[in-house]
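To the wet lab folks,

You asked to see what we're planning to order before we commit. Fair enough. Below is the target structure as tokens, and below that is the sequence we designed to fit it. If anything looks off to you, flag it before the synthesis order goes out.
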């Protein structure tokens, strides 16, 4: 069994552990934020961590009403410019904690008296040291280059923090149940193994979602790119209606994340439009009606909120990418040209 698959299966227990590990830090952080006049949140991240940042942007804005900006770290490291972050919460996200340019954003914010927080998988990392509050993924060593348990633990930590900050008790209760429910996805292994057979020879595909699950479309495309060497491109369905739709032709593979929730209506409109243009549609959903519209389908757990479905969709994406990589005779643990830690500045 490859490391990527082993680490996929570890995720429910990792999520339980990380929630316990960080409970006290989250309590202290949210208490601090209650007495601070936070006008903006700025998040600095790269790669898969940037997809977690997109998730956090949607969650913070919809749950707290505070606007969120995704930092351009090059402003700090390449252009050597300063921006005003005095009344901000500044969050750095890096699984390794070594993203040099994101660290510079956190350091600059700390120097201005902003509240700084980081999410990493290493308590002794430079990013953890640079921030006032550190949320520790506590996922153990991740041997596969492709991030699985570090990605979901990052997202899980972020939404636990945000739900506590926004005082959303129902969401916090749902989060407590999420790790055990996540195990239900592993029953989809045989279905996913069969599904990837038809995509064995694909060279390109589109990955679509709307709202908070757009973050997972981005993450799913990255997983397919790095493990199966497919030219996968992610779009929000709202954007795909414009110029990009012109690239759709008969049998073009399109993966659509379509969970129950606020995005269902818009996603249904896109699926029908794709069907009219004879695309090959793989639907990932917990809505039976939407699932039946796909040429292929992956079912995620039912009765989950829009803040939880991205976690299930992320795991489904990892399973799909891993099985596709193995079917193509590739090693998902060691993609060509990639290292586990990538340091940009």
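Sequence we intend to order:
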């Amino acid at each position: 069994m490859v490391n990527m698959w082993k680490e996929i299966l570890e995720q429910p227990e990792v999520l339980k552990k990380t929630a316990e590990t960080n409970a006290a830090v989250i309590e202290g952080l949210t208490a601090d934020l209650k007495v601070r006049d936070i006008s903006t949140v700025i998040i600095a991240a790269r790669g898969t961590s940037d997809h977690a940042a997109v998730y956090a942007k949607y969650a913070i804005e919809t749950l707290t009403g505070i606007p969120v900006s995704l930092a351009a770290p090059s402003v700090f490291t390449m252009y050597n410019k300063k921006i005003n972050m005095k009344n901000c919460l500044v969050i750095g996200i890096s699984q390794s904690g070594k993203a040099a340019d994101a660290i510079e954003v956190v350091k600059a914010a700390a120097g201005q008296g902003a509240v700084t927080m980081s999410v990493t998988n290493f308590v002794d990392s430079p990013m953890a040291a640079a921030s006032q509050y550190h949320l520790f993924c506590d996922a153990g060593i991740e041997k596969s280059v492709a991030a699985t348990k570090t990605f979901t633990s990052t997202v899980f930590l972020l939404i636990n923090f945000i739900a506590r900050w926004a005082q959303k008790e129902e969401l916090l209760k749902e989060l407590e149940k999420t790790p055990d429910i996540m195990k239900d996805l592993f029953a989809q292994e045989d279905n996913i193994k069969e599904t990837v057979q038809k995509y064995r020879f694909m060279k390109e595909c589109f990955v679509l979602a709307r709202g908070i699950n757009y973050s997972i479309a981005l993450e799913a495309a990255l997983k397919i790119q790095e493990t199966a060497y497919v030219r996968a491109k992610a779009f929000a369905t709202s954007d795909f209606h414009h110029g990009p739709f012109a690239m759709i032709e008969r049998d073009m593979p399109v993966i659509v994340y379509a969970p129950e929730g606020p995005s269902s209506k818009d996603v249904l409109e896109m699926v029908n439009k794709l069907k009219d243009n004879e695309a090959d549609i793989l639907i990932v959903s917990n809505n039976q009606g939407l699932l039946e519209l796909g040429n292929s389908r992956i079912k995620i757990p039912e009765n989950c909120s829009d803040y939880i479905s991205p976690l299930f969709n992320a795991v489904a994406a990892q399973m799909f990418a891993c099985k596709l990589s193995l079917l193509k005779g590739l090693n998902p643990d060691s993609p060509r040209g990639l290292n586990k830690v990538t340091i940009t500045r």
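Structural context that might help your review: The chain has a mean pLDDT of 95. The longest strand covers residues 40-45.

Thanks,
Computational group
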